[in-house]
Amino acid sequence: MAGGGAAASALSSPWRSLLQRALDGNAHLKHSTFFQLATVGGGGGRPANRTVVFRGFQEQSDKIQINTDARSNKIGEIRNCPFGEICWYFTDTWEQFRISGFIDVIDGSSPDPVKLQLRERAWFGSSVKSRLQYLGPCPGLPIPNDDLVKDVHIDPSAGPVDAFCLLVLDPEKPSLCMDKTPSDAYCR
Amino acid sequence: MAGGGAAASALSSPWRSLLQRALDGNAHLKHSTFFQLATVGGGGGRPANRTVVFRGFQEQSDKIQINTDARSNKIGEIRNCPFGEICWYFTDTWEQFRISGFIDVIDGSSPDPVKLQLRERAWFGSSVKSRLQYLGPCPGLPIPNDDLVKDVHIDPSAGPVDAFCLLVLDPEKPSLCMDKTPSDAYCR
Questions:
Q1: Dihedral sign (CA B164, B30, A22, B143)
Q2: What are the pLDDT digits (tens) for B72-122?
Q3: Using an 8 Å Cβ cutoff, are B97 and B22 in contact?
Q4: Where are the beta strands (DSSP E) in A79-173?
Q5: Strands B95-106 and B83-90
Q6: What is the ipTM score, two decimals?
Q7: Is residue A43 left, alpha or beta, with left meaning phi > 0 and alpha meaning psi from -120 to 50?
Q8: What is the distance between the alpha carbons of residues A109 and A74, in angstroms, rounded to a whole number?
Q9: Residue pair B184/A130 in contact by the 8 Å Cβ criterion
Q10: Per-residue pLDDT reduced to its tens digit, A104-149
Q11: Which of A69, A106, A181, B117 has its CA 20 to 30 A from that of A141?
């Protein structure tokens, strides 16, 4: 995974070391790389929350990468209010990391060649099966069965499709919070 | 747990039946009753997100109960913007429930005797160990060791302490969303 252990040890953020330790300690669990991302949605600025997958740290930084579909509701939400809070709960060690920060939305229309390169790297860093999802129906719609995805083919050497979008959350260190949960009392 | 299987079967909401099935199917996992609650916090209406514990459904309703500390940041946040979105991810079955709705904050100052009774019931429905947390230091502060909690004693027959607060989220059915995750593409 991009920006894994070696990169972590090269950086000095205490929270990053703790997070890396939690990732290592829970690596046997597939879901250890899943976390919940809260944003402020439509409907009068109400909160929105969903599970996403950690796609590594951006190289030489503490920025957290998430792949998503440019057609998903969260893109509009983030463009309207570019902040998010990750709640990352490790079920075996009962550790919770809350990481808030600015979110950069990088889709194919970005004018910045460096950002486009990051997006391309994230695309090729995903499995071919994962890339197929971006050729499927609009996210949020029910998927009747797997046949829809099975019937779609993709050239493994082809670059990112329009629907592929990279989110990059830049942690604001002062608001980081590491808790031992569950505890009704100690959750902010 | 209050409002468990029997109550669920008496109600007809399709999402409630699906949720109950997920709870039953994941009951062997301690963390199956944990979910992430997003609210809109201070700092210019930014999102906030934390893990909380499902404390059952309110009797004869689909309302979701959460115990919390009246001193936690989320109380002020919810008073300011009384909406939340739960993201409840079941790690074994890869099912995600997103449940948004209005949140009612019920602390000891509520003028409504029915609500106060609900709060009292939630208090006595918690373990004595769980109640002790509300006599501890302010939430969000580091806990150096368990001695602080060990030194606190509580009369098991005594009613709720000031810091004990019940949150009741009233699901807005149209915004409910059940996804199979993880899928970068299909997370709204």
A1: positive
A2: 989 999 999 999 999 999 998 889 999 999 999 999 999 999 999 999 999
A3: yes
A4: 83-90, 95-106, 164-171
A5: antiparallel
A6: 0.87
A7: left
A8: 17
A9: yes
A10: 999 999 999 999 999 999 999 999 989 998 988 777 555 555 555 5
A11: A106
Cα dihedral value B8, B11, B12, B14, nearest 10: -30
What are the C-alpha distances in Å from B61 to residues A91, B27, B101, B103, B146? 29, 22, 14, 14, 37
Token readout for B26 is: 């994941």
List, in sequence order, every residue forming a beta bridge with B97; answer none if it has no partner: B88, B178
**Residues B41, B46, B52, B56: is their CA dihedral positive or negative?**
positive
Q: How far apart are CA B137 and CA B142, in angstroms?
A: 9
CA-nearest of B21, B27, B42, B5 to B95 is: B21
Instruction: Give residues 21 to 50 of A whose Cβ lies within 8 Å of B.
Output: 29, 31, 34, 36-41, 45-50
Three-class SS state of A155: coil
Chains A and B form CB pairs within 8 A to the count of: 189
Inter-chain contact A51–B85, Cβ cutoff 8 Å? no
Is A74 within 8 Å of chain B by CB?
yes
Pairing state between β B34-40 and A177-180 = unpaired
Q: Any CB–CB contact under 8 A between B144 and chain A?
A: no
Cβ distance B68 to A184 less than 8 Å, yes or no, reads yes
What SS3 class is residue B128?
Answer: helix
